Automatic annotation (TrEMBL):
Protein location: Plastid, Chloroplast thylakoid membrane
Organism (species): Actinostachys pennula
Name used for this protein in its record: Photosystem I assembly protein Ycf3
GO cellular component entries: chloroplast thylakoid membrane
Primary location recorded for the protein, binned into one broad class: plastid
UniProt GO BP: photosynthesis
Pfam families: TPR_1
Family statement drawn from the similarity comment of this UniProt entry: Belongs to the Ycf3 family.
Keyword Chloroplast assigned: yes
Amino acid sequence: MPRSQRNDNFIDKTFTVSADTSLQVLPASEEEREAFIHYRDGMSAQSEGEYAEASWNHHKAMRLETDPYDRSYILYNIGLIHTSNGKHAKALEYHFQALERNPFPPQALNNTAVICHYRGEQATIHGDPVASEAWFNRAAGYWKRAIALSPNSYIEAQNWSRTTGRTSDG
């Protein structure tokens, strides 16, 4: 049974009904509809912590989806799954691919920055100040872009940037 038919909560059911209605009304090829169904099912599985199922659905959606903008969100979500599973290098690969296709989602920039910051902390723990500084500077760059797009978000990142001198706004 497709995941869309198993949703137990009101919000998931409401989203599913509205998404299905949109799919019927909007002009889309059969392949685009199938890609969206896999993306939607992947998002549902992901929100429930069912990462293997979510990953399978997202990868299936990637094979079907041709629009670069839509592909960017699929790639972003695959990156989130890898982050949740502690595979930070793999997560960065997917976030970079997502940002190549769509450089503007602040959440993708933020999550990329979070991973870069984490890798900077790990380099510090392992006694590699050069790598640490490079990762922290990279994190600052991604946070700067995310904050520019969403100025009222990422307050901790803004504070970190200020306290470490990695901001140009003084």
